[in-house]
Amino acid sequence: MSEKETPKYQLIANDLLHKIQTGIYPQNSIIPPEVELADRYQVSRPTVRQAISTLVNQGYLERRRKRGTLVKKVKIEQEFTHLIESYSTEMSAKGIYPKTNLLYFDEEPATAEVSQNLQIGLKAPVFKLVRLRYANDQPIVLVTTYVPQERIPQLLDYDFAQASLYRILEKYQLKVTRVVRKLEVMEADETTANLLNIAVHKPVFYFHTQGLTADERPIEFSIAEYRGDLNSFVIDVQR
């Protein structure tokens, strides 16, 4: 449909959405009143009202009595629950700018939990990788990953502030072909809260992930702590 064929209310909705996504109308701000928008776009108030209703139904705006129309905090739909792909790939596909802050990367002896999930001996050497990941400069997930040292000793050669772990594993014929995930909802402790920029005790989604290669051997064990206020999760089940 060309712009000439697009209804006026939809063109206005598109423009308002662009202003929301680019920060002209920030989260929790009040957008201009209908009468002002009608004058700005040179349309009737019912047309503006329809545009606003479109964005309300899509979850971008919220009408508040006596206050006006509020820009809502929009959650990011995470689809890794039924897809196997890198964080950067998934975010980029949504038009979101991904960024990674590498907090820690070194070799350590496996704990009981790590050795069980990687099916290796207790205290066997593993690489521990801790990354704080962002979406449009907003911290949204803290990820701690363990990889068995014996299967890919070259891992320390890479800068995981930039590199994708899944792509590196694939380069060494260790592609993750299946994952097993467990979800818990817990309260953020002080360290997690500070890193994710949320209050202590706020809800956090904990995903425990075991990544397996084609031979069904674990190559990765990760604990991802997602902010509850900025993330939602898509579950796609087929029969």
UniProtKB/TrEMBL annotation:
SUPFAM superfamilies: Chorismate lyase-like, Winged helix' DNA-binding domain
Domain HTH gntR-type: 6-74
SMART domains: HTH_GNTR, UTRA
Keyword entries, A-Z: DNA-binding, Transcription, Transcription regulation
Coiled coil: none
Name of the protein in question: Transcriptional regulator
Natural source organism: Lactobacillus xylocopicola
Lineage, broadest ranks: Bacteria, Bacillati, Bacillota, Bacilli, Lactobacillales
